[in-house]
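User: Design a sequence. Structure:
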């Protein structure tokens, strides 16, 4: 009986380690999503400001320490493409987060089952 409890305890520890790794990855993805949300909002604001300009207005883009003149249409196009890219990244990130949540739920279920098995094995051991 002692062997059963030890085997279950090892499986429990392995499952716990997998759950912790999953949580760590989940937290990393949540931070990434927050960063992408910030970039998305910033670019949306830039696009709204660019749409307020007239075609005759000058637009400058910062390249390192230098401001370089850029055509308004080109700026609007570049910001639009950036928003598309960020949206794709947000979608990927959200899908991965959903998958990780499902994975974590499975780990929780496995942990509960293993804990019950471990407690059962220990109580059998004590009753003998």
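Assistant: Done.
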């Amino acid at each position: 009986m002692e062997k059963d409890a030890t085997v279950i305890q090892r499986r429990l520890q392995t499952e716990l380690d997998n759950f912790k790794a999953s949580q760590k990855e989940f937290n990393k993805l949540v931070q990434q999503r927050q960063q992408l949300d910030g970039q998305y909002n910033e670019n949306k604001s830039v696009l709204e400001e660019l749409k307020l300009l007239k075609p005759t207005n000058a637009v400058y883009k910062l390249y390192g320490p230098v401001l370089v003149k850029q055509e308004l249409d080109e700026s609007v196009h570049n910001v639009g493409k950036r928003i598309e890219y960020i949206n794709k990244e947000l979608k990927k990130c959200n899908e991965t987060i959903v998958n990780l949540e499902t994975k974590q739920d499975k780990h929780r279920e496995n942990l509960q089952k293993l804990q019950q098995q471990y407690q059962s094995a220990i109580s059998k051991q004590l009753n003998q």
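The chain has two helices and two strands. The two ends are 9 Å apart (CA to CA).
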